[in-house]
User: Which sequence fits this backbone?
């Protein structure tokens, strides 16, 4: 049903999916229900949707939430959405690049006032998924929850535990608790992408998972550790932080971490210990 509806809408609007914008439209009713259900929406919720496309998810969100703000970068699609969703009084369509927009300002402009709490629910284009997640995680006004469909491999990287951690894992888990809700095969989209997807629920903490005084320096240390992930920490930190291998070894010894370990094996608390020793040395 959704496939036929999608094709009819595209034909009526004289539109085609744009590969450059990562446009793949969800045509799977089950996946749509799982995505909306995972967000646990109520009439009191404000929802931000990124990349609403043809508005199939937008309509479902509007039935459950109090207000939906859909941000669409494609001006032609945004115009079509404004016309097609005009009967829905609780939906605002914004034609904008979400990565160039402050979430708090967008919500304030759309609702005509400040909003203390909101959720993000979206089928994210693969090519900007990580950037969009980081944008909301680092925003001055963060969402209390994000439920997104993203590339399967990216989802699995986000929820990875020590032993398989990556810079993405640390970046997300520093701010939130991610969990995979369900997997979505490529055939659930039109046109189908080359890879499968996953629905991920990301519940943001009131405070970061580990206490650090300077978040920017914390991630400078983490990025340094992952600068050469195949190398032992002693060498990757030396390379990434532009310090000598001897200084890197001393840093790890003071943090109580073996020099022979690799970045993917460290927990967030261990990264925090490395950061604290590094900042003590800088003082």
Assistant:
């Amino acid at each position: 049903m959704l496939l036929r509806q999608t094709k009819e809408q595209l034909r009526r609007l004289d539109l085609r999916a744009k590969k450059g914008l990562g446009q793949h439209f969800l045509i799977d009713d089950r996946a749509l229900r799982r995505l909306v259900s995972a967000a646990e929406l109520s009439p009191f919720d404000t929802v931000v949707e990124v990349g609403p496309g043809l508005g199939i998810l937008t309509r479902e969100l509007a039935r459950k939430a109090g207000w939906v703000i859909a941000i669409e970068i494609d001006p032609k699609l945004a115009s079509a959405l404004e016309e097609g969703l005009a009967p829905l009084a609780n939906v605002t369509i914004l034609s904008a690049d979400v990565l160039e927009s402050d979430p708090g300002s967008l919500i304030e402009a759309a609702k005509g006032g400040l909003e203390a709490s909101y959720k993000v629910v979206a089928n994210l284009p693969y090519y900007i998924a990580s950037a969009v997640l980081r944008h909301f995680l680092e925003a001055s006004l963060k969402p209390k929850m994000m439920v997104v469909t993203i590339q399967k491999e990216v989802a699995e990287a986000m929820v990875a535990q020590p032993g398989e951690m990556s810079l993405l894992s640390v970046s997300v888990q520093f701010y939130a608790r991610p969990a995979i809700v369900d997997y979505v095969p490529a055939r659930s989209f039109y046109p189908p992408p080359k890879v499968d997807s996953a629905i991920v629920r990301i519940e943001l903490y009131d405070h970061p998972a580990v206490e650090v005084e300077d978040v920017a320096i914390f991630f400078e240390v983490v990025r340094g550790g992952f600068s050469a992930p195949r190398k032992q920490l002693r060498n990757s930190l030396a390379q990434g932080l532009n310090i000598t291998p001897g200084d890197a070894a001393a840093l790890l010894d003071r943090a109580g971490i073996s020099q022979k370990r690799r970045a993917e094996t460290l927990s967030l608390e261990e990264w925090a210990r490395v950061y604290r020793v590094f900042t003590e040395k800088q003082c």
